[in-house]
Write the C-alpha cells for this entry.
Amino acid sequence: MVAPGTGYEDIRDWLSEHCGMSFPEKKKELLEHRMAKVQERFGLATLDELAVELTVGGDVDLKLAVIHAASTNHTYFFRETQGLDFYRDKILTAQLPAGGLRVWSAAASSGDEAYSLAIMATQKFGPTAFSRVSILGTDISMPAISQAEQAIYGTSHLEHVPEELLERYFTPAGMGQYRIVPEVRRMCTFRRLNLKAAPYPFTKGFHVVFCRNILYYFDRKHQYQILEQLYEATEPGGWLLTSVTEVVRDLRTRWQPVSNAVYRRPL
Ligand SMILES: C[S@@+](CC[C@H](N)C(=O)[O-])C[C@H]1O[C@@H](n2cnc3c(N)ncnc32)[C@H](O)[C@@H]1O
C-alpha cells in the first residue's frame, strides 16, 4: 500500500525499477512537473493518487503515459556529428557483412537518428542502400515510436539538415513540416523496447549500435547492465556509439574504447 505523502518517492522508485530511470532528490521538481500532465489527463488531483494508480492499479495506458512524461524525447536530425562521421567514414566504407549491415538506434525517440543514418547510407549507396543497410529504432515511449513511424517533422528537428538533403530526402507535409521520402523510410523499422528489460528479444546480432543521450537517465548499476546487454546484442567486431558526454570507460564493461564515444566488441 502507498503511504500518504510519498507520491514522489513511490513514482521515483517505480521508474527506477521498471525503466532504470533515475530521478534523485535534485530532480524532484522536474518529476512533479512532468507528472502534472499525467494527473491532468487521468483526472488525478495529487501526486499521491497518481502513485497509487501507478503502483497498485493495472491501467497500462497510465503506466505508458507516466513513462512518456518522465522521458526527455528531445532529439533532432544529424545530432552530434562526431559519431555520425565515424559511421560514414569508417563503418560504411568498410566491407559490409554479406547479409547487410544491421544498425540499431537503441533510444530512437522520434526516429531522427535512425533516419539520419538511413539518409547517410542512401547518400553512399544510392538505390542499393535498402539491400545493404537496415536500421531498427527502439524506444520505451510509444508516442515517440508512433511519430518515428509517421516520419513527419517540424523545423525544430530539421535545423541541422543541409538544404540539399532537405530537398532530396524530405517532402513538404504542410504546416511547415516535412516527411521522409519512402526510399529512406523503408530502410527503418521501429519498435517499442525497454532497454532495462533484459534479455533483449533479438535473434540476430547488430553490427552497429547507436545508444546516445540516454545513459545519463540511469544510475551506474543500470548503465553497466544496459551496456553489457548491448554488448550481448552486438556481433563480434561490432560498434557501439555513445554521446560524447557519456562516459563508458569508467564502468568497466567489456566494450573496448576506440576513440571518443566509439567502442568495439572485440572479434
Ligand atoms: C534524449 S532521447 C535520445 C534520442 C537520440 N538517441 C539522440 O541522441 O538524439 C532519449 C530517449 O530515451 C528513451 N528512453 C528512456 N528510458 C528508456 C528505456 N528504459 N528504454 C528505452 N528507451 C528509453 C526516451 O523515451 C527518449 O526518447
